[in-house]
Automatic annotation (TrEMBL):
Protein name: LLM class flavin-dependent oxidoreductase
Gene3D superfamilies listed in its UniProt record: Luciferase-like domain (3.20.20.30)
PANTHER family listed in its UniProt record: ALKANESULFONATE MONOOXYGENASE-RELATED, C2H2 FINGER DOMAIN TRANSCRIPTION FACTOR (EUROFUNG)-RELATED
GO molecular function: monooxygenase activity; oxidoreductase activity, acting on paired donors, with incorporation or reduction of molecular oxygen
Stated family: Belongs to the NtaA/SnaA/DszA monooxygenase family.
Binding site for FMN: 68, 164, 168, 239-240
Pfam family, one: Bac_luciferase
UniProt organism field: Nocardioides immobilis
Keywords from the named record: Flavoprotein, FMN, Monooxygenase, Oxidoreductase
Listed NCBIfam families: FMN_nitrolo (TIGR03860)
Lineage, highest ranks first: Bacteria, Bacillati, Actinomycetota, Actinomycetes, Propionibacteriales
Domain Luciferase-like: residue ranges: 40-397
Keyword Nucleus in record: no
Length: 465
């Protein structure tokens, strides 16, 4: 088999493929937890997760990606009742707890989990993620999250949700602490492991960071020795202006939910320009487009599965999720109101994505709600590949695959879509060696253009110890 990081016979580099899910009953937010293909996977069972990880690696997926949050959706009707009834990302377990176990049954699959900057101090998070990077031999990624949920903020002692700009300022301070700890506090020469002298590490090569920021303070040094990647691969999903600015500086990959290739192209053009303005290269940033699909041996078979999904959809679940993400109780809104009339401080990126997809059309709340659990493409493996190819043509470099009818859909995706995607050079047929970052960029550590690189050896330069 060919080395897939090189150009294929079709003249393209394979896209990266991530499976999007949550560590909760329904997997995809708003999709029915009780569908047969959803019940095939039990989020409470380690055996079930291990089986899924094996199947993803056999299909040559790059990563599994877990969305996550630390609150409960309680905006709709001013209550969490609809969320609880319909299992809309509730209950939800900690996805990072799965990582080390899944690493034992896979060799190449990456593990990207979301972690909110308000959930734990940056020192504690740096220790946890470095430990996981050691245990997986460098296959960990972090989706940097700033929470819009009032319940999440109240769960950790805050009375109100910080404004949008402040949430990203907090995130910037948080990642600086993580960067300094994992890139700056241990020099490359620090670990000695000299069996003759009994010296494990050189004290002169391990340094305090003495970070005092607007939101966080940390003395350091990191208490974990450098892991294979030092830093996890850095993801970010914010599409607001503040989110894009943060991603341009910090992210190595972003997730977008464009409604069509035109919308994706608009995001990509903007982000490439922002990345260059930060002194980075355009190709320093991978762009993953959401792909929600249902595939069958024939188009008729796929449509029959999609109809089963539609019949099982509960509008209450969609309304509960969309109300929370928009920061607006949709039980009190005329659903035929254009979303352009909304001014919200919650997930601004959702509205931006819709506007960029159809700038000449006034999307209504009803259209937004109805499309949440509607697959973007239904058909054969060839039709799925056509859809992916259209996004690849505008510069998308990865696909974030969501199975709205349950993770059991992976079996048909693997059977019908994967071979065609591989035949067209859109998906890898073999893994490259090394860490997740090495597979994607050729180096185990962030490149010199990333802001974290500026902290390397800085402690030695300023004389802290």
């Amino acid at each position: 088999m060919q080395n897939d990081d090189h150009d294929t016979a079709q003249g393209r580099r394979p896209l990266r493929f991530a499976l999007f899910t949550t560590n909760s009953p329904s997997g995809f937010p708003g999709s029915p937890w009780s569908q047969p293909l959803a019940r095939d996977h039990d989020y409470r069972s380690l055996d079930s997760w291990m089986d899924l990880a094996r199947k993803l690696e056999a299909a040559r997926f790059d990563t599994i990606f877990w969305a996550d949050h630390s609150g409960v959706y309680d905006t709709y009707e001013g209550s969490r009742d609809a969320t609880v009834r319909q299992a809309v990302q509730f209950p939800i377990n900690d996805p990072s707890a799965l990582v080390s176990a899944l690493a034992t049954v896979t060799e190449h699959l990456g593990f990207a989990f979301s972690a909110n900057v308000i959930q734990e101090p940056p020192f504690s998070f740096a220790r946890r993620v470095a430990t996981l990077d050691h245990l997986t031999k460098g296959r960990v990624a972090w989706n940097i999250v700033t929470s819009f949920q009032m319940s999440a903020w109240r769960n950790v002692g805050h009375e109100t949700v910080a404004g949008h700009a402040e949430r990203y300022a907090r995130a910037a301070d948080y990642v600086d602490v993580v960067y300094k700890l994992l890139e700056g506090s241990w020099e490359d020469r620090a670990v000695v492991r000299d069996l003759t002298t009994g010296i494990y590490a050189d004290p002169s090569a391990i340094h305090s960071i003495d970070h005092v920021g607007e939101f966080y303070s940390s003395a350091g040094p990191a208490v974990t020795e450098p892991s294979p990647q030092r830093l996890p691969v850095l993801f970010q999903a914010g599409s607001s202006s503040d989110g894009r600015a943060f991603a341009a500086r910090n992210a190595e990959a972003i997730f977008i939910g464009a409604k069509n290739p035109r919308g994706a192209a608009s995001v990509i053009d903007d982000m490439r320009a922002r990345v260059r303005d930060e002194g980075r290269h355009s190709d320093d940033l991978l762009v993953f487009q959401q792909l929600s699909c249902i595939v069958g041996r024939t188009e008729e078979e796929a449509k029959a599965k999609a109809e089963e999904l539609r019949a099982s959809i509960n509008d209450e679940a969609n309304l509960a999720y969309t109300s929370a993400t928009m920061g607006l109780d949709l039980s009190a809104v005329d659903l035929d109101t254009p979303i352009g009339q909304l001014d919200t401080d919650a997930m601004q990126g959702k509205l931006r994505a819709l506007a960029e997809a159809a700038p000449d059309k006034a999307w209504t709340f009803r259209e937004v709600v109805s499309t949440l659990t509607a697959p973007q493409v239904v058909g054969t493996g060839e039709q799925i590949a056509d859809y992916v190819e259209a996004y690849a043509a505008v510069g998308v470099t990865g696909m974030n695959v969501a199975f709205l009818n349950g993770l059991g859909e992976l079996e048909d995706f693997t059977r019908y879509a994967v071979p065609e995607l591989q035949r067209r050079g859109l998906m890898q047929t073999e893994y490259l060696p090394g860490t997740l970052r090495e597979k994607w960029s050729g180096s185990p550590r962030v490149n010199e253009r990333h802001p974290a690189a500026s902290y390397r050896r800085i402690a030695a330069e300023i004389g802290h110890s």
